[in-house]
Design brief:
The protein is mostly helical. Helices cover about 75% and strands about 0% of the residues. α3 runs parallel beside α6. The protein is globular.
Length: about 280
């Protein structure tokens, strides 16, 4: 008996998998962008687009930055800036988390404080500089006042959104199982608030660095901002731009650090899982 084989269904050699088109990795594109930026910076004073006394070539600034890396004064200033950043962000986060959970859990408190929050939130932190100097002079506390005020609203608004997003069915189920108030907060409310909280902290981290540098530059409290002001007043233009580059590098390090913490804390969240898979 002959067997007829349908050529459309007959097994054959496996077809080669279609190769996926992959572009350059993100870090390569980022590096190319930095090199293009530095190249344009290098050419502007050479071509006379900007006078060299106002904007030295990038190579000269990078040499000054590398020189700063070997100075103890530079690292002491970095430490002062990071201290103000960390303490201010931590204080703002704790205060905003506690108040956000309390206010967000009560409809009356949300309505009662809404107009006050919307009135105070747009006030720029730099407007508080005279008050900070009057209260604390040029000490660390002056920087902390500005940092805490600016970061507090970033975190508070996110926490309020998180509390409002709590599933009502889950909350009613917890009540039906006689969960205590602390159990409902720990097992129902906080897991919902956590992604919002981490977003607020990540946004607040950038704001905290900006306010730390601003306070040091204007008030004169210890840190990189004060060193930038001293370099500018002393006519050390290359050193001033080197310190500005240092603040940018510090901001990049802080952003990478905060993103890594967010991935670790929110590894269970769909947004982070999707980001890792992509």
């Amino acid at each position: 008996m002959s067997v007829v084989i349908d050529p459309t269904t007959a097994p054959g050699p496996p077809r080669p998998a279609r190769a996926r088109r992959k572009g350059a990795p993100g870090w390569v594109l980022g590096l190319v962008g930095v090199l293009v930026f530095l190249g344009a910076w290098e050419l502007m004073p050479i071509l006379g687009i900007v006078q060299g006394k106002y904007l030295p070539p990038a190579s000269e600034v990078i040499v000054a930055l590398v020189r700063d890396f070997g100075l103890a004064v530079f690292w002491a200033s970095v430490g002062d800036t990071l201290l103000a950043w960390a303490v201010g962000l931590a204080m703002a986060t704790i205060l905003a988390l506690v108040l956000g959970m309390v206010i967000g859990s009560s409809r009356f408190l949300r309505r009662f404080t809404n107009s006050t929050i919307e009135f105070l939130r747009p006030i720029p932190s730099v407007a508080l500089i005279p008050l900070a100097v009057l209260l604390y002079g040029v000490k660390l506390e002056s920087s902390l006042l500005l940092i805490v005020y600016a970061c507090f609203w970033q975190v508070l608004i996110q926490v309020l959104y998180g509390v409002a997003d709590v599933d009502n069915v889950a909350m009613q189920t917890a009540r039906s199982y006689s969960f205590s108030t602390w159990q409902r907060i720990k097992d129902v409310v906080f897991p919902t608030v956590l992604p919002y909280l981490m977003t607020g902290i990540r946004l607040g981290a950038a704001v905290a660095l900006i306010l730390a540098i601003t306070a040091e530059l204007i008030i004169g409290s210890p840190g990189l901002g004060r060193e930038i002001g001293l370099a500018q007043s002393g006519g050390a233009v290359s050193g001033m731009y080197a310190l500005i580059l240092a603040t940018g590098l510090l901001g990049m390090v802080i952003n990478v650090f905060m993103r890594s913490i967010e991935r670790r804390v929110l590894g269970w969240h769909p947004s982070v899982r999707g980001e890792v898979i992509a």
